[in-house]
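Let us work through a complete example step by step.
Step 1: write down the sequence.
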Amino acid sequence: MISIQELTKETGVTVRTLRYYDQIDLLRPSGKTEGGHRLYSETDVIRLQQILFLKEMGFSLKVITNMLVTDELSLKESLQRQLNFVQEEQKKFNRMERILQAVVYSAEIEGELDWKIMFELIQLSKQSSRIREMFQKQVFSDEEQKLLHNLPNMSEEDENVREWVYLLKQLRSFMNKGKDASHDEVQEATRKLMEKCLEMANGDETFLDKLWEVRKSKEDSQKMSMYPIEEELLVYMDEAFRIYDERERKK
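Step 2: predict the structure and record it as tokens.
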């Protein structure tokens, strides 16, 4: 038998909390000293450990009492239900994390929060992965599908993705300033973007051409769950790519 002070020291639970557990009949001490001080047995310590574990797993004291004291609830079934709940919540939070990360990047690219794009990002997050997989199989060969894994994921915090975001932000800024796609600054940003594209595609230009055609189609890019880019910027980028390609061929 150990005193309440010793139990507090051993478990980190306060005296006030232990007294409260006693009051609600959740954890009653097995004995008392002649002076009326609470004494806890090894069984009591195990019960406290159960309580602390269940609290950590998100159960309320009322539910814990029903599980451990009154036996109104099955401990195993309750744990299974709680596991199912936590797994569903985790999926929800993971989805929220991906959306928020994409929104943060979106704000960098657009220069402000674009609610239309944010709505599209939410819609994309709800889209079944089966749609993307089926579309990829229809459009890309087996080898090309492997290269798709190298695409920047706007839902992830990654230095490589930040480089893509920065280049898109630059091109959008040049477009808004009215700079022609042939302008040296635009072409320099395009060169850097092309280098990243070639690196991503392991130098497969045919794959990049096919991917760009998908990117320019709003419907197809949605099927691929690609970040939504407005048509005006896509047209601007397409012209910049065309000019860059022509200049490279003349070298």
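Step 3: interpret the result. Residues 83-250 form one domain.
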